[in-house]
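Retry 2 of 3 after timeout on previous attempt. Resubmitting structure tokens to design endpoint.
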């Protein structure tokens, strides 16, 4: 399969996960970009961050049009997320791809265990 087709399929899968669960497209996009598409580790993480914003905006628009949500209730999380994004973006250069993979895996395991309990 051509690289562009792999990227499109990866994006579609990430969008579907993001839409189904209200987020989490990155948990499938990073492994797909680095493993299946052969993208370099740090580049796959950075690309994932760039892709998640529009995916989340589309998912939020669909939720808003279909069932609505309270923007006031989401605002504190948005502000905290913006602050965390700034800190994470600054730390990105300082962290090796091995550490990024380990942290990413730890968050996935933690989230999975929390959902099961």
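Retry 2 succeeded. Sequence:
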């Amino acid at each position: 399969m051509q690289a562009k087709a792999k990227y499109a399929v990866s994006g579609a899968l990430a969008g579907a996960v993001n839409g189904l669960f209200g987020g989490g497209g990155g948990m499938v996009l990073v492994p797909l970009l680095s493993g299946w598409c052969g993208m370099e580790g740090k580049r796959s993480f950075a690309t994932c961050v760039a892709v998640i914003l529009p995916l989340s905006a589309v998912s939020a628009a669909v939720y808003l049009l279909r069932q609505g949500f309270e923007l006031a209730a989401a605002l504190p999380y948005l502000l905290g997320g913006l602050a965390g994004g700034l800190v994470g973006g600054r730390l990105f250069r300082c962290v090796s791809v091995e550490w990024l993979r380990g942290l990413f895996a730890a968050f996935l395991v933690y989230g999975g265990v929390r959902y099961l309990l």
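Attempt log closed. Residues 27 and 87 are 20 Å apart (CA to CA).
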